[in-house]
Specification:
About 50% of the residues lie in helices and about 10% in strands. The protein is of the alpha/beta class and about 650 residues long. It folds into three domains: about 170 residues, Substrate Binding Domain Of Dnak, Chain:A, Domain 2; about 140 residues, Rossmann fold, CATH 3.40.50.2030; about 240 residues, Rossmann fold, CATH 3.40.50.2030. Helix 5 packs antiparallel against helix 7, helix 5 packs parallel to helix 11 and helix 19 packs parallel to helix 25. The termini are far apart.
């Protein structure tokens, strides 16, 4: 490579990521001759036909490729039109995403049952109040029942989430009545996740369902089986077992690494393994072992979604989101990177090898060639965690790689939940979403936006998240966040009460009165179900319509990258939320299937999809939708702003 070309390439570090710590590590990786995902993503040129979902590989008469610029010019070998091909491809994406979340939820349910039956002794029920609340929400009588008996009854009911072949999933009872009625009328009420995924996959087989409208019904039912099924089960039972989060101040970014400590990073999605690691690192035996090797202690750190859960529950430091999971090993300070399922890049193995870091897989469903596998078992967590710590401590004692740790650390308030928002607005005895609704009605808050999801190397890491949220809060839109998006905004300093001045005058007034940030972090990507419950609570509080589709709310995944994201996006659309995706979308404009998703579903009473890459334009689209809903509700009239007196402040806080 010529010197000028090399210098030009190095200048693009800032173009790859907005995270300064990741920029530093990307530059170091290049000097070390190690290629990270941020560079691989830039160099990988996506197939222009595949990226718009104009190809079909569902049988071996093909693959069939249609021209995205003239999609109706020809059909596949079997006669499949572009609309059938796109619907089938989208269906298979949603099926995979739904299966992934429900597999996670089913594991959490099994852990919960094991604790109640006494087979799992290292974990326990932490939040009995939430156990009662969840049981009541799906019609289980709680009066006079002991914790174990009530828990087992809840287990039996929630098992239907996965195994039902008819009837309805238990948690759909928590959706607004009007939303439930729409699902029943259209035949999209989810039964059990296993049957929904199986039927959707069956319908996409060659020679089966070839009507994009009919496929959309089963796509919708399967997506709902994710958000109101496995994802919600995973979130609610994790709260019951490990404790419902409440706001906690935590450190974020690569500066949380400590050169004089054994650094263990846990990255993935299943909380039990991380909870087991937390217990193990506090064992005096391992603390002494670390000190014997010259370390001052053991530093347990989270990344990605399980990291977000542990940060929200316990204040465990968080080193970065999906886009930084390879870059952090370039520091040379990571003694063990421990992973379980979902969002784990296979490229971690090569980067770990280059920097002499132990990469350890722990889940039987996710092995990686080149990694060490130490299986985590719920009934005996220390069998796994103790081996991991022994390896990490040994690696610290024989470190040979030069250490370079970025200095960046940002503080943020994490751990907001539906329950805490309710308490924050109304107190212990008057908990309600009515104050939020009142401040939407009176115009102080324009509406609510969920900004969630991954990072994607097709765009500059974190930048779309940050610019979008900056624009939304500036326009008095309260933002709820989960997953990697939450970490991006925490690094940018938005998740502290001191960020209130970044908001518009109405939202800032509310934030300053309540003492909250203008951006509320709700946890991991599976915790998007918290947003569904919050939206349902807004409907129940009154004044903003009868269904989620009536609310002045919108959602966005600015840097999405996975099939899970498509499943999440569609369960929000199916629940009534206008949902915008950045980066791109697997459909072709001016086709019948695209028109159904981006317009037709809304006419049927659901939400709708949107797609846009520019963050300011995404914000404009979301705000326009919020304003449209305000107008339909008759609350679009501008109100004269007055100085806030004590009576007004009591109204805001009550």
């Amino acid at each position: 490579m010529a010197k000028d070309d090399k210098d030009k390439n190095l200048e693009t570090v800032q173009e790859r990521t907005a995270c300064e710590a990741t920029q530093q590590m990307l530059a170091k990786a290049r000097r070390d001759g190690v290629k990270l995902d941020l560079d691989r993503g830039f160099e990988m040129k996506a197939c222009p036909i595949g990226v718009e979902s104009a190809c079909c590989k569902n049988c071996f008469m093909g693959p069939c490729r249609l021209n995205p610029r003239d999609p109706y010019k020809k059909v596949g070998v079997c006669g499949a039109t572009i609309d059938t091909i796109m619907a089938r491809n989208f269906a298979r994406n949603v099926a995979a995403g739904c299966a992934s979340h429900n597999d996670h939820g089913r594991h959490i349910l099994g852990l919960f049952r094991g604790i109640l039956e006494g087979k799992i002794k290292d974990f326990r029920i932490e939040d009995t109040q939430k156990l009662e609340k969840i049981a009541k929400s799906i019609g289980i009588e709680v009066e006079g029942k002991e914790v174990v008996a009530l828990g087992l009854e809840l287990c039996d009911e929630l098992e239907k989430t996965f195994s039902n072949v008819d009837g309805e999933m238990p948690f759909v009872k928590r959706a607004p009545k009007a939303t439930q009625e729409l699902w029943r009328k259209d035949g999209v009420m989810p039964r059990g996740a296993m049957v929904e995924v199986m039927e959707l996959m069956s319908r996409t087989h060659i020679g089966c369902d070839q009507d994009y409208n009919n496929l959309m019904k089963q796509i919708t039912r399967t997506a709902l089986a994710d958000g109101w099924g496995g994802s919600m089960v995973a979130t609610e039972l994790s709260d019951i077992m490990f404790g419902t989060p409440s706001p906690i101040l935590a450190d974020v970014n690569m500066g949380v690494l400590k050169e004089d400590h054994v650094n263990v990073i846990v990255h993935g999605h299943e909380p039990a393994m991380f909870e087991g690691m937390l217990a193990a690192v506090n064992d005096p035996f391992f603390i002494e072992e670390a000190r014997a090797k010259g370390a001052k202690g053991i530093n347990l750190i989270g990344m990605c979604c399980s990291g977000a859960e542990m940060m929200s529950r316990h204040g465990v430091p968080h080193a970065g989101n999906f886009g930084s999971t390879e870059a952090i090993m370039v520091t040379g300070a990571v003694d063990a990177m421990v992973v379980d399922i979902q969002c784990i890049k296979q490229g971690l193995a090569e980067v770990a090898r280059c920097y002499d870091t132990h990469l350890i897989t722990t889940n039987p469903r996710a092995h990686i060639e080149g990694a060490t596998h130490i299986e985590f078992e719920d009934h005996d967590p220390r069998k796994c965690t103790d081996q991991i710590l022994a390896k990490a401590i040994t690696r610290f004692g024989s470190r040979s790689m030069p250490i370079e740790i970025p200095r960046q650390i940002q503080k943020g308030v994490h751990g907001f939940t539906h329950e805490y928002i309710e308490y924050m607005l109304g107190g212990t005895f008057r908990g309600s979403y009515s104050p939020l609704n009142d401040n939407i009605i009176n115009g102080r808050i324009r509406g609510v936006a969920g900004v969630v999801g991954c990072t994607n190397p097709k765009v500059r890491q974190d930048s779309v998240h940050v610019e979008l949220v900056r624009e939304l809060i500036k326009n008095d839109v309260l933002v709820l966040q989960t997953g990697c998006s939450q970490i991006a905004l925490a690094k940018a300093g938005f998740l502290v009460p001191e960020a209130a001045p970044l908001a518009g005058p109405g939202l800032a007034e509310v934030c300053e009165t309540v003492g909250m940030p203008p951006v509320l972090g709700l946890g991991s990507c599976v915790d998007n179900s918290r947003i569904l419950i919050a939206a349902s609570a807004m409907v129940a509080a009154g004044g903003l319509g009868n269904s989620i589709a009536d609310l002045p709310v919108a959602g966005c995944a600015p840097e999405w990258m996975s099939e899970k994201a498509l499943a999440i996006g569609h369960y929000f659309v199916a629940s009534g939320v206008y949902t915008v995706f950045g980066v791109g979308f697997p459909s072709i404009k001016d086709t019948k299937f695209h028109d159904l998703m981006f317009d037709g579903l809304e006419k049927q009473g659901y939400g709708k999809w949107g797609v846009e890459k520019d963050p300011i334009e995404i914000a404009r689209m979301m705000i326009a939708h919020i304003d449209k809903k305000r107008k339909e509700l008759g609350i679009d009239k501008t109100r004269e702003r007055t100085l806030v007196d004590m009576s007004d402040r009591r109204d805001l806080a009550s």
